[in-house]
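Subject: design request, 176 residues
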């Protein structure tokens, strides 16, 4: 005869099996969805400012504006998006360098049509031996991680990027 504990164990195991099947169903309905959206990136003027400290030269750049609409990405299985703007460039010592310049978390229910103007980089470029100054091919790309309620965390690159040259000299910093 079954005891109360064995019946509770059977009920608990059945409930977990049903929850696992529902979670898998949640994942499979959005697993193959294309999460790319067009991104419009403009850079009006690139200014590099040299900031010396104990770690060596760092550059901070002034960016232009970025416009994009994230509403096609959000569905019932998306909890939040982690957006980041990265720069890719090549130097003599490294064939591919990637630097994150800016990031933002967009939660479900927030404004998904972003129009970011007069942006400044949130993070510094750390120049590994003057590879940024006078570099003629630096590509800015907006990418994002989709944080779902259930499933994998896809890394998606936006369908728009811009390549630009960096100036030959640093901007003079003003001291007040």
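Subject: RE: design request

Done. Sequence follows.
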């Amino acid at each position: 005869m079954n005891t109360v504990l064995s019946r509770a164990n059977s009920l608990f195991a059945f409930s977990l099996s049903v929850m696992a099947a529902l979670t898998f169903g949640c994942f499979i309905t959005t697993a193959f969805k294309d999460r790319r959206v067009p991104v419009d990136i403009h850079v009006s003027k690139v200014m590099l400012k040299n900031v010396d400290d104990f770690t060596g030269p760092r550059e901070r750049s002034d960016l232009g504006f970025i416009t994009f609409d994230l509403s096609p990405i959000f569905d019932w299985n998306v909890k939040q998006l982690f957006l980041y703007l990265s720069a890719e460039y090549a130097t003599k010592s490294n064939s591919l360098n990637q630097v994150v310049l800016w990031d933002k978390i967009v939660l479900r229910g927030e404004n998904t049509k972003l129009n970011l103007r007069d942006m400044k980089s949130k993070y510094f470029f750390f120049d590994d031996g003057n590879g940024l100054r006078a570099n003629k091919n630096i590509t800015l790309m907006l990418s994002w991680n989709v944080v779902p309620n259930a499933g994998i965390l896809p890394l998606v690159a936006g369908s728009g990027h811009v390549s630009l040259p960096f100036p030959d000299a640093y901007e003079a910093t003003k001291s007040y």
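The longest strand covers residues 78-89.
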